[in-house]
C-alpha cells in the first residue's frame, strides 16, 4: 500500500511523517510513505492531506477520482503528532479494500 502525505513542504510534515512511520513499525504495519507538495501529487493508494493543504481537497478528489482514498488530517492530530488516529484511518481503508472486517 502506498501512502502520500501532501503538504506545503514544511518541517512539520517531515516530523509528522517520521512519527507516523515509527508508529507503523511499532504496530508491525507495512506501507510505503512519502511526502510531496500539492503540485507534485502522483498516483497512490491513499492521500493524506496536511491541514495546510486542506483547501485543495475538492481539487484532489477530482484529480484522483476513484483511484485513491483521501484522508484529511485533523488539525489537532497533526499539531499534536497524534499519528495513532491517522494510522487507524489508513488501516480502516486498507481492510475495506481487502474485503476484511
Automatic annotation (TrEMBL):
One Pfam family of this protein, by short name?
PTS_IIB
Q: Which PANTHER family match?
A: PTS SYSTEM N,N'-DIACETYLCHITOBIOSE-SPECIFIC EIIB COMPONENT
* Modification Phosphocysteine occurs at: 7
The entry's protein name is PTS EIIB type-3 domain-containing protein
Q: Which organism does this record belong to? A: Amedibacillus hominis
Q: Which of UniProt's keywords are assigned here?
A: Kinase, Phosphoprotein, Phosphotransferase system, Sugar transport, Transferase, Transport
Residues covered by the PTS EIIB type-3 domain: 1-100
For the keyword rRNA processing, the answer is: no
Amino acid at each position: 500500500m502506498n501512502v502520500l502525505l501532501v503538504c506545503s513542504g514544511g518541517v512539520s510534515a517531515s516530523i509528522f511523517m517520521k512519527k507516523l512511520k515509527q508508529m507503523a513499525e511499532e504496530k508491525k504495519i507495512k506501507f510505503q510513505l512519502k511526502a510531496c507538495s500539492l503540485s507534485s501529487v502522483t498516483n497512490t493508494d491513499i492521500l493524506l492531506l496536511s491541514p495546510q493543504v486542506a483547501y485543495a481537497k475538492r481539487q484532489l478528489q477530482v484529480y484522483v477520482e476513484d483511484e485513491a482514498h483521501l484522508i484529511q488530517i485533523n488539525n489537532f492530530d497533526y499539531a499534536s503528532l497524534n499519528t495513532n488516529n491517522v494510522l487507524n484511518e489508513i488501516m480502516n481503508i486498507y481492510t475495506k479494500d481487502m474485503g476484511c472486517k
